[in-house]
Design goal:
This protein is of the alpha+beta class and about 60 residues long. Helices cover about 55% and strands about 10% of the residues. The longest helix has 12 residues.
Length: about 60
């Protein structure tokens, strides 16, 4: 099955947040599912980071390596 993640779900998944319901994490982790991410969600995340409204652990991991 195909699923489209919104920005919050994507952030929560990659940040390993408890805000993401466990059933959603299972859907994302299931290799039989196709997970889609909108380029607009990525754009939204970048804008919030640039404005200082969003700090992500994953971004710091990428920058530090």
């Amino acid at each position: 099955m195909k699923y489209l993640l919104d920005a919050n779900a994507m952030i929560w998944y990659f940040e390993d947040s408890k805000n993401l319901p466990q059933r959603v994490a299972k859907i994302i982790d299931d290799p039989l599912n196709t997970i889609l991410i909108s380029s607009l969600s990525l754009w939204e995340i970048v804008i919030k980071i640039m404005l200082g409204k969003l700090n992500l652990k994953i971004v710091y991991n990428i920058i530090e390596t």
